[in-house]
Write a structure and sequence with these properties.
This protein has helices spanning 2-6, 8-25, 51-54, 78-86, 110-119, 133-149, 178-185, 238-250, 291-299, 301-305, 315-327, 346-375, 378-402, 408-433, 440-470, 475-506; strands spanning 39-40, 48-49, 56-61, 65-69, 93-96, 101-105, 126-129, 156-161, 167-174, 191-198, 204-210, 215-218, 222-224, 229-236, 274-279, 282-287, 307-311, 340-344, 405-406. By secondary structure, the protein is an alpha+beta fold. The chain folds into 4 domains: 2-49 and 345-506, Multidrug efflux transporter AcrB transmembrane domain (Multidrug efflux transporter AcrB transmembrane fold, Up-down Bundle); 56-63 and 134-188 and 330-344, 2-Layer Sandwich (Alpha-Beta Plaits), CATH 3.30.70.3400; 65-129, Alpha-Beta Plaits, CATH 3.30.70; 191-315, Gyrase A, domain 2 (2-Layer Sandwich). A 4-stranded antiparallel β-sheet has the order 8-9-3-18. Helix 2 (8-25) crosses helix 13 (378-402), helix 13 runs antiparallel to helix 16 and helix 15 (440-470) runs antiparallel to helix 16 (475-506). The relative contact order is 0.13.
């Protein structure tokens, strides 16, 4: 037990290596359990790879909108008033109270928004292209949900800022071509159920009966009803079910003239009583009120079950509706015309993966060769190389455990970790071996001195890399994160463990 207490740092290092091995190779851990940011490796490990090492699509596009700041005196009618002044739908206007901003989406210029707000007696402090940080964060969350709801093999969505200050939404989806990704995000996906009914003067009247905010649950798309039709079953909230029932009763849908009477000239001179599915302002499908649904609404049973079926023309359309309903609508559209995209084939990605492995292997062999030439004593050099490699194993295990995707920048970070790790170990070896070590106390004094130097260098590295790790700067972020984690693992675990190894060789106790 005393030997374990004296060499507890080596024991901790061993435990971390074993745990990392389990995270890398044991089934049901990390990437296999929760694929989130990339595709899981189908080989021996649980590692996940980004599109640079597994193929896929990266799409970068700005948000299509304009925003006015300095507006804090809004009320419940402001959104509709601004929409009317701009001549757009209410869904194309957003109010971000926390930032004192009003946004307009789509084909609206800064001058048009400024003039509309001036007409409504608002005085914005500035009107700019783009949207607020709150809206961009919501877009990132929604697109991530759309990727998961569409059943794609994971993806990564984040914000990115150019050198000129322009902000982009960056979407990465492994093993998916560019057309699939564009189709997923090119529309906002605003889904409504509209009640269309005769107004009494020969024209139609439209009333929104269900909005996405009033849906509490979405089931898989499939064939439902009699006869079976492509549809998406949903469950409404209690408030949504109450409002839907009121709209249906008050406008005659549950009466004899409304049941089974959508666009049926034989029973009605007017176009009829239709329940219409609308997506982004376009009619997807229209259907009549069924006898069963009308009876449930009249009896009150609908308020208890709150079940409704949104019908589509075909199964593909129904699947698109399910994705939109489950993930929610994009707060603002992306300007794909002004964006960029590229697709990397899986064959080329496999070549990158092979070259990355070869590069890492060459780096390890080069470092090992230099260390053995420098010291000429295997008991000094071998633990040094193995200790540096253990940092990479621990970082790989951590990446596998949390499902962090590996790409070229991360591989570069691993190579940097090997180099900086060996540098620090050389400092330790040189410091404690400059003169003969007469006792454990002398060794500890020299080791602490070396560790202070290493700690100061580590702090400098962390401070220098922190902005790159925090800011959304694309590939640089992965490199910075791996470098910082490698430095922390080295200072806390591997450098002290190497010190214990040297102490066991240079002292008697």
């Amino acid at each position: 037990m005393s030997a374990v207490r004296e060499r507890w740092r080596i024991v901790v290092l061993g435990v971390l290596i074993v745990a990392s091995g389990a995270a890398l190779f044991a089934p049901g851990i990390g990437a296999d359990a929760a694929p989130t940011n990339a595709t899981a490796d189908t080989g021996l490990t649980n590692l996940q790879y980004g599109i640079q090492l597994d193929g896929g699509t990266r799409l970068r596009a700005p948000v299509d909108g304009v925003v006015a700041y300095g507006i804090n005196n809004t009320d419940a009618d402001t959104r509709s008033q601004v929409a009317d002044a701009l001549g757009v739908e209410v869904t194309d206007v957003g109010i971000v109270g926390g930032e004192g901003a009003i946004e307009a989406y789509g084909n609206v210029s800064t001058d048009e928004l400024s003039n509309a707000l001036t007409e409504l007696n608002y005085e914005p402090t500035s009107v700019e292209d783009g949207v607020t940080e709150t809206t961009r964060a919501a877009i990132v969350r929604t697109i991530g949900s759309k990727i998961n709801a569409a059943g794609l093999s994971g993806g990564n969505v984040q914000q990115s800022r150019s050198a000129s200050g322009e902000t982009f939404i960056v979407i990465e989806v492994p093993n998916t071509n560019a057309s699939e990704v564009r189709e997923l995000v090119q529309d906002r996906g605003v889904v409504r159920v509209v009640a269309r009914y005769p107004s009494g003067d020969g024209t139609d009247r439209n009333t929104t009966a269900i909005t996405q905010d009033e849906i509490s649950d979405v089931r898989p798309a499939g064939q439902y009803g009699q006869p079976p039709q492509p549809a998406v079953p949903i469950t409404l909230t209690a408030e949504g079910a109450e409002r839907f029932s009121q709209v249906m009763r008050q406008n005659g849908f549950t009466s004899d003239r409304g049941i089974q009477n959508c666009n049926n000239p034989a029973t009605s001179e007017a176009p009829g009583y239709c329940i219409v599915t609308v997506r982004d302002g376009n009619v997807v499908y229209e259907a009549s009120m069924s006898d069963g649904l009308a009876g449930d609404i009249e009896s009150g049973a609908f308020l208890e079950e709150r079940q409704f079926i949104i019908t589509a023309t075909n199964l593909s359309q129904a699947q698109d509706l399910r994705v939109d309903l489950q993930a929610g609508a994009l707060p603002a559209p992306l300007d794909l015309q002004s964006g960029t995209s590229y697709f990397l084939s899986s064959e080329l990605a496999e070549d990158f993966k092979l070259y990355s492995f070869v590069t890492g292997l060459v780096a390890v062999l080069a470092v090992a060769g230099v260390v053995f030439l420098r010291y000429g004593r295997p008991w000094v050099a071998a633990p040094m190389v193995l200790t540096a490699l253990s940092e990479v194993v621990i970082l790989l295990g951590f990446a596998a455990a949390i499902g962090y995707p590996l790409d070229l920048s991360v591989i570069a970070g691993f190579i940097a970790v090997i180099g900086t790790g060996v540098d620090d170990l050389i400092i330790i070896a040189d410091e404690v071996m400059t003169e003969e070590v007469s006792s454990s106390r002398v060794f500890q004094s020299r080791f602490r001195k070396a560790l202070w130097v290493i700690g100061a260098a580590a702090a400098t590295t962390i401070i220098a890399m922190s902005p790159l790790a925090v800011l959304s700067l694309g590939d640089l972020q992965g490199f910075a994160i791996v470098t910082i984690l490698g430095v922390l693992v080295g200072v806390i675990v591997t450098r002290p463990a190497y010190g214990d190894i040297l102490r066991s060789r240079l002292t008697d106790h």
